[in-house]
Amino acid sequence: MQQNEFSNNKINHQNTSLKKEINLYVALFPVVVLMTLLAFNIFQFEGEMLGGYSNQYILLMGGIVAMLVGIFNKVAPVVMLREVWDNLKSVFVPIMILFLVGALAGTWLISGVIPAMVYYGLKVLSPEIFLPASIVIAAIISIATGSSWTTSATVGIALVGIGTALGIHPGMIAGAVISGAYFGDKMSPLSDTTNLAPAMAGTDLFTHIKYMAYTTVPTIIITLVVFSIISINLEPTGNADIEYLLASIDKSFNITPYLFLVPVAVVVLILFKTKPLVALASGVVLAAVFAVIFQAEVLSTLSDSKSSAIVNAIFTDTAIATDNDKLNELFSAGGMTGMLWTIFLIICAMVFGGVMDGIGALARITKALLSIASTVFGLFASTVVSCLGLNAIASDQYLAIVIPGKMYKKAFSDKGLAPQNLSRTLEDSGTVTSVLIPWNTCGAYQSGVLGVGVAEYFFYAIFNYLSPFMTLIFAAFSIKIKQLRDA
């Protein structure tokens, strides 16, 4: 994943948190309050109970409840605040990335980069192959970069634009992109979660990747088959309609293959291990230069001065009018301000997760799950449930890997299981499901960048929700369950 800001301090503080002991029911109380409020907001008020920032406020309420529980259990406020502060520090880089992604969307729009991707994509990708092709494209980029976040911020945005122009439901497109991106993220040696999981379990990177392929490859094959069937049954957009879209884009922008130099430059920088902030900032600057060179007429329609139009595209809303309503909706961007909702959600999630960790609730819940794992399958199932629960409760995929990794490492060893069993399970249930939780940092990021809500793409993120089931199937039938004596 792109969040390579994960610090050793956070892992060290997990050791402190694991020593705390509170009553299980007390530990679950803030979770019950949070889930009740979230469910009430969704089903009773359609997500608008407290206005447009309902989930954010509810997460803060959950954090306050957790803090009161901590005070009642004589946990020093400084301990809780320290965990919150560490959580907030850990998401500083992702927040900066989100701001830059907003700026990237705006500058790539006015420079013609996104319109060019849509233009040439419409010529090449038909509805019959679009969804499986999107999975493959996203997977290749994600394996190369080691980042599902970068994949979504570059080709993901373009694929959503192309697919929308073809008349395909945005949820389907986002689900395909996310499925491919997370497959690549899991299998890439450049991914930080792919490095973190074996480190927590006690195995090496390439043993982990090789062993993970047993569950990951069948899952992505099933995903490709399902999306191929969906694509075949999609109603194709007529050639006349596509030609009309192409003509509208060509009329509104100066379309040239040279515009692809901008995204290519960003991908190359990432492949050469340039820091994400530097790579994305370079993409913004380069797109601004290309806007002046290739889209002078577009800039003149947006503002009296070219510099003002570029600044507005970076920071605020930008919309470019065409003679096609579908394209008008597509060719608009919110700049950095468009990312504020997502950023606020991440901050609130980190507050709740930090307090829960500080009072020892996360460790206590995980310990309870461990205590009921009397069989090998029960151990795998408990690990999966722990990862899923921590993704929802702590709102952070790293905690969903670190805490279960530490808690279950000895249990796997006691059962005679090789550590790669644990590392694979952590990835199959921790890494990939984070994007399915709206208030998780990954779910908030992907929905914010792709412009598609988690509820819209959830059903179509087939690879992500199928992965935990696949690892449980392998455990239930003892398929590729490596024993310590065979390691």
Q: What report would you give on this structure?
A:
This protein has a domain at 9-92 and 340-486. It is built from 25 helices and three strands. The protein has helices at 8-19, 24-45, 54-72, 77-90, 92-110, 113-124, 127-145, 148-165, 170-187, 192-201, 205-232, 239-252, 261-271, 276-294, 296-302, 306-315, 325-330, 340-358, 361-371, 376-393, 399-414, 419-431, 441-450, 454-457, 462-476; strands at residues 49-52, 318-319, 332-333. Strands 2-3 form a two-stranded antiparallel ribbon. Mean pLDDT is 84; it is low at 1-20.
Written as H for each helix and E for each strand, in order along the chain, the element string is HHEHHHHHHHHHHHHHHEHEHHHHHHHH
Q: Rounded to an integer, what's the Rg over CA atoms? A: 23 Å
Biggest sheet, strands in spatial order? 2-3
Secondary structure tally, helices: 25
Helical amount:
over 70%
Largest sheet: 2 strands, antiparallel
Low-confidence stretches: 1-20
| Strand composition percent | under 5%
